[in-house]
Amino acid sequence: MTEGPSYDVAVIGAGVVGAAIARELSGYDLRVALLDARDDVGEGTSKANTAILHTGFDASPGTLESRLVRRGYALLSAYAETTGIPVERTGALLVAWTEEELEALPGLREKAVRNGYSHCALVSAAEVYEQVPALAAGALGGLTVPDESIICSWTTTLAYATEALSRGTVLLLGHRVSSVEPGPCTTTLHTDRGPVVARWVVNAAGLGADLVDRLFGFDRFTVTPRRGELLVYDKFARPLAPRIVLPVPSSRGKGVLISPTVYGNVMLGPTAEDLSDRTDTSTSAAGLEFLLAKGAALMPRLLEEDVTASYAGLRAAIDRSDYLISADGSRRYLLAGGIRSTGLSASMAIASYVCEQLMVAGLALVPRSDLPSPPRMPQIGEAFVRPYQSDELIASDPAYGRVVCFCEKVTEGEIRDALASPVPPAGVDGLRRRTRAMNGRCQGFYCGAKVQGMLL
Fold it and tell me: Which residues are catalytic?
């Protein structure tokens, strides 16, 4: 027999979907392991998306994605309120710039109704400019989506992982799965840090989901890494974008949007470039040029503001038009693949659906009665009371009054807490995602030495 830790379920992939699945599974009487090849949770696709909590108004009606995004929106909205994940219900506005796009808007409203969302409204060009005055001239009309929201994707993934750990999940970072050894009752996952043995395996590996799927003997889909580059504008630009401005969607996706962020910035992007390299998150001169041209066409005044950062993320595009979630009882294996950018919004519903499919496939799920309360996450949203603004918190611990990162108003107490948290950062980038330290105008020029010194 192969030696190694033994679990009831091993979840491969500690992104927002994998962490949500581990959290859900650990609500049952199961020993759960959450594996990831990287050294932190949410290090892949989950850390670099547009961070929009979607209603699912424009999903393809009748698809699994449509159903799970709609359900996930409700579940995550409630969970965010309980745990303190920053969410702002800004609403969204689809803007038509051509007669063809204008003619498509009634169909999009009807599509939303078929998806169970009936709050969209057609608005005139005058109403478009009333809602977003800084838009470029030439808009012909729009479609409102009042319940679209912005969210902190970093805190969402971390909240799921933190609660999973409090429920008993074992987090195994730096465990890249290289091969699979099936047995009569268990499967051994061979990783670069030793074997992990589990009765059941859930594949939520994102960009690597097709590779893991092949280790289990399948050849049913291929992941194409789709790079999306984005520009982040300084907080002074925020009044220009009071809500999410969406283009009329195409077959390639939602296209380039302008969106406020929960950190007080404005985001422009993403691009959509299919690559072969599953690790290439570099930005490019071509991407920058493309985004600036789009920005100039959509909102010229935005380009007068300072760019705080540019970054790129990779989405797991597949050769299918829907989520691919399938359980195989004979292999004691479930695939959760092809989860596109809507996976953040659908994450809790995906986790619930995965458990349903596992139970149908033969995994006994006995609910636990001893679950701890959900965690209360550190507040890093700009629209909420931050530690440096709380007299009560500072009085209880002066470290919350000692600002280290002045651009983002991050305090010594917040950094200390992040380093001592159940899922601590593995380095500077992880600390950025937990506190916003070094994410501001100077990108760590002034505070970088002190922040990195606290990591030692």
Answer: 54
